[in-house]
Design goal:
By secondary structure, the chain is an alpha+beta fold. The chain is built from 8 helices and 11 strands.
Length: about 260
């Protein structure tokens, strides 16, 4: 770890939380709260455990806040998790175990300074076009998102609420080939930080350069919107692409979930 990495990681973690908060006001019943010691409760009301979470971001987290938020999250009637920026302490593991959160997984947090981003970006392939989706055409984004993540349309619709897509801080994009949206991505800009979310490609259109082209277009748009720093959390499938664009892992977060919804 370099001397500057903790500073970068702190900024990336804060940026991730700040950009995610933009979405909550568009989801009925969704909310986020902050407790002592950099402990946060986030309820997206979506049946995905990684989105409904007790998020432990502080370097000296308050165990009472974690326990209280865990009790509240247990009442969501939704899959949920406890997520920590570092290896969870035994005390946090004990709190998680009280709620049956005994399955463990990790997710990288990647970040990049955008000062020289143009050096690594690519152009849109011939025959493809990038389109920014507004609320009036939200079904295009939702349909492609559902196909890319192989999720139900009812869940994808929650990330394509018309008012959300019309928010100036939120930009949803698709890359289209022959009139079909084959790849998706969503930017959320908070100050000089952009969070990159909901990047997916239809299975039959993967590994052909479309996803890289859309990420490139999104990063150019983010810079034009004033972003100077980017953060994202990735699946193993997309992580190598982001790393090839100069993103680096600044932390590896641990998620504790129930074994039946990990």
């Amino acid at each position: 770890m370099t001397d500057t990495q903790p500073i970068v990681a702190d900024r990336a973690a804060d940026g991730l939380l700040r950009t995610l908060r933009y979405c909550l006001k568009y989801l009925p019943g969704a909310y986020a709260r902050t407790g002592a010691g950099g402990v946060h409760l986030v309820n997206f009301t979506v049946p995905i455990s990684s989105l409904n979470r007790v998020l432990v971001l502080g370097h000296q987290p308050d165990l009472a806040a974690i326990a209280a938020f865990a009790d509240e999250a247990a009442g969501f009637d939704l899959p949920w998790s406890i997520q920590t920026r570092t290896e969870p302490s035994q005390e946090i593991l004990d709190i998680a175990a009280l709620h049956g959160l005994t399955a463990r997984s990790t997710t990288p947090l990647l970040a990049r300074d955008l000062a020289d981003i143009e050096d690594v970006l690519v152009d849109v392939p011939s025959g493809a076009t990038v389109r920014k989706i507004d609320g009036a055409h939200n079904e295009i984004f939702a349909d492609a998102l559902a196909a890319g993540f192989e999720m139900s349309n009812s869940i994808a619709d929650m990330f394509a609420v018309p008012a959300m897509l019309d928010d100036p801080a939120i930009s949803a994009f698709v890359l289209e080939v022959d009139g079909t949206a084959v790849t998706t991505g969503e930017n959320i800009v908070a100050g000089d930080i952009v969070g990159l979310y909901n990047g997916a490609a239809r299975p039959q259109h993967r590994r052909n350069g479309y996803f890289r082209a859309l990420v490139s277009a999104r990063l150019r748009h983010a810079v034009a919107d004033g972003a100077r720093f980017a953060v994202t959390q990735n699946t193993p499938m997309s992580r190598p692409l982001y790393e090839s664009l100069g993103f680096r892992v600044v932390e590896t977060w641990t998620s504790l979930t129930r074994s039946d919804n990990a």
